[in-house]
What we know:
Blueprint: H1 3-10, H2 22-49, H3 56-65, H4 76-88, H5 94-104, E1 109-114, E2 119-124, H6 130-139, E3 150-156, E4 164-165, E5 173-174, E6 182-185, H7 202-206
Parallel strand pairs: 2-3
Antiparallel strand pairs: 1-2, 3-6, 4-5
Amino acid sequence: MDWSQVQARLYDLPPTYLRSGNIFTWLQNSYAAGLTWFTQSMDGLALQYDFNSAQGNWLNVWGSLFNLPSQSTETDTTYRNRIKFTLQLGRTTPVAIQLYTQDALGYQNSVSEDFTTVSWSMTLTSPITSNAYTTLANNLGVVRPAGVPFLPIYIPSGGLYLGSINYLGAPSVTGAYLVESTSSVLPIISPNTAPAQSTLPTTYLTDPTLNPSLA
């Protein structure tokens, strides 16, 4: 409640309990100030209990319930959407990996399988920084198949042509040779996946006093 709502309740008393004059007004205002801070804090706390309205570190607590920590560059909205998407997404298939990378992490990509080596690889459609592909590879732990070899991430780099070749007495020839348009990066990742297991103390999940939904 805000100041006006608290004050309205303090003055909603029988006339016997009300007084006129500045002293009584000051006393009522002091009550209103303390109660306003209290009610606003409780209202804010109630918002953080709701996943859809939680913010900042409170949203990180929700992520910890599912072993999905936030990234340094994520906004609350992006992080909330990633948690929802990850919990509802399928696992292990190329389509699941591709959708997770695209919709949860924000990287347009394609995923292909190599049945000869029983492995898979990913090709991005736009370049990213070296730190970003390391983070990307680590985030795939919640969706990729455990123990299946992971071939490189292919990242676009440069143009399609080597350049111009000049011959003596002849016009220049543009794009005489094609060059590799992608570079491959092979990040070191664990052979195990990281399922959505809570990283919070188990007391939170089992104590009905802390978690009223269990009562």
